[in-house]
């Protein structure tokens, strides 16, 4: 016998239980009744009063009303409320139906993403979640939220029912996380070709992936179009998290291209959205033990290197050693590894550890000697410039041919900041002394990395800066002269030095390894800014003998100028 249909009043109570205090038009749409009838039912509900609690609606009624309620909420873009309803009242089949319809919208909604995680977890053993597009949704959650791309890479070959486009999108994201920019570009292009249009969120993810991979590959100009397409579609579909990702990527692209105004605008819009949604700010600190704390700890070590005191440098060395241990045990992206290597090279330079600098420069790409950097990623090019700088600091500049090949590739991309850094390295490594015109050009640039590069290359830069300021060519270059003066003062004060308490407790030191006692005396007097004549008078020797000692010290310590000798003497305790 068929059970009697529930009264309209009962249906209204059930609908209000699902939707809350919904208005008459919403209840009418949900119950397929005329608004006038709904109003009458609401009057009956109100007349009954709150004296007795309303009985809970039966499961059959909720099962009938729930799909319609979910659709109404989705049409009204209330995806969070819809997810909460299906979690509370939905059967596994209804929850999976809902994921098929709205899973990607949940994924890109900051408030709904945790609810997506609950739905995926509750239905992890359901056969429908083990194949097809729902499996793709599970995979993207594992890659992006769980941070386990290797797990998905292992499972992809056996994953059935995935479309070619969605499979390629997943492969592009995995390749990008594993620093495989060329493969990421290839897979993202396959994915874009496989989607008939950009009206679905996975198609927008494919475009975002392509733009990010092009940036990583050192093709920032080409990255603008797909990232802009992803941003436009995300704005249209209300995919807030994808909006923020695309805005941040576009900001980075324009920073690389040195277009400061659009870079700042994109960054500000991303920050506005984060604050509006109460999301974590990118600069908010992570716990030191967290995986994502790696760049934060690098920044801390870099600031300690900036401070310049021996105690700070020792703390930086300990921090960098710990980060090196982390990097050996876990996978970190190429960008972070380059930053670690840069800090390590700076520390080695401050400590005059030429063997460590030579070790870094020895990794310079061997195929570059054939004159080709084509196909190199942004971070491979960044590493090559870093290695060229380390070779200079170790007094073993790289041959001209590979440097020219690297310069040509940076010009083709274009990558202006890396190109200027390489020009500075080449200028300081010129065979006949520093290339003053190139040094002037560097000083006249608006590069934000001016001070950072100056500090890194300080041992090779101090002397040329002093020589430039003493030359006639600087007279009509007011900006270059001002910057050269400021940098020279900065670098002379940035040589490693003891704190006041350390200075009071520091005894006279023995000669450093490799130097004789007399050579050490000469170097110490150079550090005190004595001239050759003053040194000769202090040691009761001829000026020619002083020059002989100086040449031997320069040769043994790979010193290239008197300014560098002064820095080295201060560091060694003179």
Automatic annotation (TrEMBL):
Gene3D superfamilies with a match to the protein in the record: Winged helix-like DNA-binding domain superfamily/Winged helix DNA-binding domain
SUPFAM superfamilies in alphabetical order: C-terminal effector domain of the bipartite response regulators, TPR-like
Superkingdom field: Bacteria
InterPro entries: Sig_transdc_resp-reg_C-effctor, TPR-like_helical_dom_sf, Tscrpt_reg_LuxR_C, WH-like_DNA-bd_sf
Keywords annotated in UniProt: DNA-binding, Transcription, Transcription regulation
One Pfam family this sequence matches: GerE
Domain HTH luxR-type, residue spans: 508-573
Keyword Cell membrane annotated: no
Entry protein name: Helix-turn-helix transcriptional regulator
Organism: Roseateles albus
């Amino acid at each position: 016998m068929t059970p009697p249909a529930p009264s309209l009043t009962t249906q209204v109570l059930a609908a209000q239980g699902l939707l809350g205090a919904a208005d008459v038009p919403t209840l009418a749409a949900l119950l397929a009744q005329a608004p006038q009838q709904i109003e009458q039912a609401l009057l009956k509900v109100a007349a009954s009063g709150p004296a007795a609690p309303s009985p809970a609606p039966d499961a059959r009624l909720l099962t009938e009303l729930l799909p319609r309620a979910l659709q109404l909420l989705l049409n009204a873009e209330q995806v969070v409320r819809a997810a909460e309803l299906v979690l509370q009242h939905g059967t596994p089949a209804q929850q999976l139906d809902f994921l098929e319809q709205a899973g990607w919208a949940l994924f890109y909604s900051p408030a709904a993403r945790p609810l997506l995680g609950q739905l995926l977890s509750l239905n992890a053993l359901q056969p429908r979640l083990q194949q097809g597009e729902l499996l793709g949704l599970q995979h993207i959650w594992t890659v992006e939220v769980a941070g386990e791309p290797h797990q998905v890479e292992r499972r992809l070959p056996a994953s059935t029912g995935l479309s070619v486009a969605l499979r390629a999108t997943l492969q592009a994201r995995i390749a990008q996380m594993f620093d495989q920019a060329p493969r990421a570009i290839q897979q993202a292009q396959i994915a874009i070709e496989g989607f008939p249009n950009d009206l679905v969120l996975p198609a927008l993810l494919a475009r975002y992936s392509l733009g990010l991979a092009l940036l990583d590959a050192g093709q920032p100009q080409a990255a603008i179009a797909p990232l802009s397409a992803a941003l436009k579609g995300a704005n249209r579909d209300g995919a807030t998290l994808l909006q923020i990702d695309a805005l941040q990527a576009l900001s980075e692209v324009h920073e690389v291209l040195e277009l400061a105004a659009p870079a700042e605008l994109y960054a500000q819009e991303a920050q506005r959205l984060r604050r509006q949604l109460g999301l974590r700010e990118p600069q908010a600190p992570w716990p030191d033990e967290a995986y994502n704390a790696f760049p934060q700890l690098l920044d801390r070590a870099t600031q300690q290197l900036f401070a310049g005191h021996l105690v700070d440098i020792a703390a930086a060395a300990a921090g960098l050693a710990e980060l090196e241990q982390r990097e050996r045990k876990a996978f970190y992206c190429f960008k972070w590894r380059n930053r670690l290597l840069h800090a390590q090279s700076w520390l080695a330079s401050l400590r005059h550890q030429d063997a460590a600098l030579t070790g870094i420069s020895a990794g310079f790409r061997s195929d570059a000697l054939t004159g080709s950097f084509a196909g190199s990623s942004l971070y491979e090019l960044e590493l090559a410039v870093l290695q060229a700088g380390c070779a200079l600091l170790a007094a073993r500049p790289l041959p001209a041919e590979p440097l020219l090949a690297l310069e040509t590739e940076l010009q083709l991309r274009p990558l202006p900041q890396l190109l200027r850094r390489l020009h500075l390295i080449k200028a300081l490594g010129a065979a006949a002394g520093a290339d003053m015109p190139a040094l002037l050009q560097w000083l006249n640039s608006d590069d934000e990395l001016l001070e950072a590069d100056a500090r890194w290359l300080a041992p090779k830069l101090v002397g040329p800066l002093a020589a430039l300021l003493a030359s006639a060519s600087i007279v009509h270059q007011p900006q270059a002269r001002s910057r050269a003066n400021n940098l020279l003062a900065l670098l002379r004060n940035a040589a490693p030095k003891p704190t006041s308490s350390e200075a009071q407790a520091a005894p006279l030191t023995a000669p450093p390894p490799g130097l004789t006692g007399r050579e050490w005396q000469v170097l110490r007097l150079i550090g005190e800014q004595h001239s050759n004549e003053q040194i000769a008078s202090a040691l009761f020797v001829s000026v020619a003998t002083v020059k002989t000692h100086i040449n031997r010290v320069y040769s043994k310590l790979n010193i290239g100028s008197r300014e560098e000798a002064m820095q080295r003497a201060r560091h060694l305790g003179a």
